[in-house]
Structures are given as structure tokens and as C-alpha cells.
């Protein structure tokens, strides 16, 4: 195995990270057969909820007046406030520019009508191929909600998703929505009652097993508030312990916990109104310690939790840390978090997921994150080379592949010893 010359390390890492296709393990995208659930195009891109929150900070229209607008008028308003009246320097605004630039749109006129004209000739299927190519992403994982009547109907019709789109069973209401969620489960034919007795738990296990099967889900996921504690005497603990843990264990699937979201701190912002809080790492440690033969994935939303999360991953082999989620998906924080994780965990974590909601966004989310992952990797490989390690092209390839998809695939396939 020949060592690379020192001055070749940085350019090699750069090229390899750019050329390695990504397995994007958490998005809110849908495959074409899901119809209108698949969002793409300029008006969707510009009305991303991150940009709605940024616009309504500075807008002269009321919340109600904004929501009364149709999508095109909302997009025009956001464009005016964030791209014309102000410089688009926030990460979400810059993301729109990266997408448009990589697709080849002419931004000189700064007119939203020109963007609509530019997109007008794209056909959905071709656009999906083009975006996957430009983003250099080979597979995306959707976020699938069996309790959503629109989505459920599509699954029940026997949809065959494009193999580039994998499913995940997302179960927030089943963990957090008691007692009300029992009515929704009952309406789907599961005999769950609001007091969550043994029969209800059996039915929740049946719900999980049937929907994992129907969706061919890669994992089961939930988002949790900063107030989440484990164990306690809440329905959430019971459902985790007595339904999610046994069902995912039996099928050897990871249970992904996304911890730290406070939903609807400002309901006037609707889906842009969620925030965050510092969460309790000890609760995560207790789940991991109590179930060593289950596989878990975790990401946390507040910057303050990132260091202890990486330390927790050092202590528990049944935990795969992933991504810089939502409010930490900004270049300065991605760099800080990725550098710290690399120092504590070496190559054994998943640096990023896109969380894209609009297909076009995978272009910018991966373009921006790839640069930072490459930057940190360059520094680390240069450091070990300077210390005397003969860095090879193969180990750069292997590390890049692990970070961008290999670690996820290996974790899915692994069987806890
Ligand atoms: O709960 C989640 O999966 C969050 O990522 C989303 O619900 C959130 O709205 C989002 O888009 C963050 O990027
Ligand atoms: Zn998400």
C-alpha cells in the first residue's frame, strides 16, 4: 500500500468526498408514486418552513394574512423580503441559491417569474434523476406516517416505491399522543384503548409489525421533546419498553431517536413554529444500557447536547450517532460537531443527513455539508500524516464511503453480539 505525498492528501480527500455517492438516511421526501406528497420546484423551494420563519420575522404582513395567501403569493412575498429587500446570507436562503445555481438558472434578473419559467419544462421523473445526479445521492430514506390518511391510502394501494427511496416507520403520535391516539389506532382496526393495558400494547406491537412489513421499513423513528425522560411512568416509556423495543429487536431494526424538539412554541407560525431545548442525555443512556441487544440511532437538536451525545456513543456500541439536525444544520455548527465527533469517535459515526423536504434541496444540503466533512477530514488526515502515518488513497476512500453511507448500511446489517 503506497503512501500519498503530503501535498496530495488534501486534494485527494476533496475529490473523494465529492465523488462518493451518499445514502441520505433521514429526509421528508417521497418517491414519484406518492403523487402530491413529493414536493419540488421553485415555489416549494422558496416556501420551505425555515424561510417562512425568517420571513415572518421581518415581514410587514400579519401571520394570518401570510397564511391566507396561496403558495405562489407566499413564495413571491418570501422572495421579496429575503432575496430582494435583504441579502440572502442565512443558510436556508443561501441553500436556494446553491440549488438554482447548480441547476443552471440565471439569477441575474433576481425575478421569481424567471425561476418559474426556468423550471417550467422539467418533468417530474427527469427532474428526480437530475437532482439525484447533481447531489450525488444514491438513496434517500423517507419519513413515513401510517397514521396519516393520505399516505396510508397510498401504502394500502400497494405502492411500489422507486428503489432509490426507502421507507422509515415514523411513530411520534404512538409514543407521545396518549390517550388521544388510541382513537386513531382503533379507526385503523387496532384494538388499542386509552388506558394502555396489556391488550393495547399487544395491538401496538401488531401495528408496528404490520407497518414495518408493509413499508419494508429500514428503521423505526420518533422525535422527542427536551422533557423526555426514561424510564418514567408515562405512556411513552411503556410503549418504548413494551412495544418498540421487542418489535425492533425481533426484526433487528434500529430505533432512531431524534431528541430535543419543542413543538409549536409559536403556533401562529404553524409548521415553522417548532423550537428546541436541551435534553436529558441520562435518559438516552438508560435506554441504551437497558437494551444492549437492541440497535439505536440518535441525533440531538441543541448544540449543548452534542458533546455528551458523542461521549455516550463511545460508551454504547448499540448507538449510532447521526446527522446535524435542523437548527444545528448550519456550516459553523456542522464543522464544530463533525470535528468533535471525529476526534471522539474516529470513523464510526454518520456525519450528516439532509432532512430535505423539497427534492431540489438535496443538492444544497449535500453540497454544503460535503465541503465541511471534506474540510474536517483533510485536517485529520493531514494531522496523522504529519505525525508519521503513511496515509493511503484506499483508507481515504474507505473513510469517505463509511461516512457517506457505509456506516449506516453496516449498522443496519449488524447483529448485536
Ligand atoms: O421531526 C423531524 O423529522 C424534523 O426534521 C422536521 O419535522 C422539521 O420540520 C424539519 O424539517 C427539520 O429539518
Ligand atoms: Zn426531519
Helices, strands, pairings?
Layout: H1 6-19, E1 22-24, H2 42-46, H3 49-58, H4 63-68, H5 71-84, H6 91-103, H7 112-119, H8 124-135, E2 137-141, H9 149-156, E3 165-166, E4 169-170, H10 172-176, H11 181-187, H12 198-215, E5 220-224, H13 235-251, E6 255-259, E7 261-262, E8 275-276, H14 281-290, E9 296-300, H15 306-315, E10 319-321, H16 331-345, H17 361-386, H18 393-413
Parallel strand pairs: 1-2, 2-3, 4-5, 5-6, 6-9, 9-10
Antiparallel strand pairs: 7-8
Helix pairs in contact: 1-17, 1-18, 3-5, 6-17, 8-17, 12-13, 15-16, 16-17
Notes on the protein architecture:
- There is one protein chain.
- The protein is α/β, with parallel strands linked by helices.
- Helix content is 53%, strand content 8%.
- It contains 18 helices and ten strands.
- It has helices at 6-19, 42-46, 49-58, 63-68, 71-84, 91-103, 112-119, 124-135, 149-156, 172-176, 181-187, 198-215, 235-251, 281-290, 306-315, 331-345, 361-386, 393-413; strands spanning 22-24, 137-141, 165-166, 169-170, 220-224, 255-259, 261-262, 275-276, 296-300, 319-321.
- The strands form three sheets. The protein has a five-stranded parallel β-sheet. A three-stranded parallel β-sheet has the order 1-2-3.
- α12 (198-215) crosses α13.
- The chain is globular.
- The model has no long low-confidence stretch (mean pLDDT 98).
- The chain binds D-fructuronic acid and zinc ion.
- D-fructuronic acid (FIX) is lined by residues 28, 143, 223, 258, 326, 355, 357.
Radius of gyration: 22 Å
Number of helical runs? Answer: 18
- Poorly predicted spans: none
Ions, cofactors, ligands: which are bound?
D-fructuronic acid, zinc ion
Structural class computed from helices and strand pairing: alpha/beta
Q: Quote the beta fraction.
A: 5-15%
Roughly how much helix do the residues carry, as a percent range?
40-55%
Tell how many strands the DSSP assignment holds. 10
How widely separated are the two ends? Answer: 32 Å
Overall pLDDT score: 98
Order of helices and strands: HEHHHHHHHEHEEHHHEHEEEHEHEHHH
Spatial arrangement of strands, main beta sheet:
4-5-6-9-10
Instruction: Please describe the biggest sheet, giving its number of strands, its sense, and whether it closes into a barrel.
Output: 5 strands, parallel
Shape: globular
Amino acid at each position: 500500500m503506497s503512501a500519498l505525498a503530503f501535498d496530495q492528501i488534501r486534494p485527494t480527500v476533496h475529490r473523494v468526498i465529492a465523488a462518493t455517492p451518499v445514502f441520505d438516511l433521514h429526509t421528508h421526501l417521497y418517491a414519484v408514486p406518492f403523487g402530491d406528497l413529493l414536493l419540488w420546484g421553485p415555489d416549494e423551494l422558496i416556501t420551505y418552513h425555515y424561510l417562512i420563519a425568517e420571513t415572518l420575522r421581518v415581514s410587514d404582513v400579519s401571520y394570518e394574512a401570510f397564511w391566507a395567501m396561496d403558495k405562489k403569493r407566499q413564495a413571491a412575498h418570501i422572495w421579496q423580503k429575503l432575496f430582494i429587500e435583504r441579502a440572502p446570507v442565512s443558510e436556508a436562503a443561501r441553500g436556494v441559491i446553491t440549488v438554482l445555481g447548480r441547476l443552471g438558472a440565471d439569477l441575474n434578473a433576481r425575478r421569481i417569474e424567471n425561476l418559474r419559467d426556468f423550471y417550467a419544462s422539467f418533468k417530474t421523473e427527469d427532474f428526480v434523476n437530475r437532482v439525484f445526479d447533481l447531489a450525488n445521492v444514491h438513496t434517500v430514506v423517507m419519513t413515513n406516517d401510517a397514521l396519516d390518511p393520505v399516505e396510508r391510502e397510498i401504502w394500502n394501494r400497494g405502492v411500489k416505491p422507486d428503489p432509490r427511496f426507502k421507507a422509515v416507520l415514523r411513530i411520534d403520535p404512538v409514543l407521545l399522543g396518549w390517550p388521544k391516539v388510541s382513537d386513531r389506532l382503533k379507526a385503523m382496526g387496532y384494538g388499542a384503548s386509552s388506558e394502555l393495558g396489556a391488550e393495547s400494547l399487544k395491538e401496538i406491537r401488531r401495528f408496528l409489525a404490520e407497518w414495518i412489513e408493509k413499508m419494508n421499513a429500514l428503521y423505526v423513528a420518533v422525535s422527542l421533546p427536551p422533557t423526555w425522560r426514561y424510564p418514567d411512568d408515562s405512556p411513552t416509556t411503556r410503549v418504548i419498553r413494551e412495544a418498540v423495543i421487542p418489535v425492533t429487536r425481533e426484526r433487528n431494526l434500529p430505533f432512531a431517536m431524534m431528541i430535543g424538539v419543542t413543538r409549536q412554541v409559536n403556533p401562529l407560525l404553524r409548521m415553522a413554529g417548532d423550537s428546541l431545548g436541551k435534553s436529558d442525555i441520562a435518559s438516552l443512556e438508560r435506554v441504551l444500557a437497558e437494551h444492549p441487544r437492541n440497535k439505536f440511532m440518535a441525533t440531538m437538536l441543541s448544540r449543548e447536547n452534542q458533546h455528551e451525545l458523542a461521549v455516550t456513543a463511545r460508551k454504547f456500541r448499540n448507538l449510532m450517532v447521526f446527522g446535524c439536525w435542523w437548527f444545528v444544520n448550519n456550516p459553523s455548527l456542522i464543522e464544530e460537531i463533525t470535528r468533535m465527533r471525529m476526534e471522539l469517535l474516529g470513523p464510526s459515526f454518520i456525519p450528516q443527513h439532509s432532512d430535505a423536504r423539497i427534492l431540489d434541496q438535496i443538492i444544497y444540503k449535500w453540497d454544503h455539508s460535503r465541503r465541511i466533512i471534506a474540510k474536517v477530514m483533510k485536517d485529520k488526515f493531514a494531522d496523522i500524516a504529519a505525525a508519521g502515518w503513511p496515509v493511503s488513497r484506499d483508507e481515504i476512500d474507505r473513510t469517505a464511503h463509511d461516512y457517506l453511507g457505509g456506516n449506516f448500511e453496516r449498522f443496519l446489517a449488524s447483529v448485536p453480539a
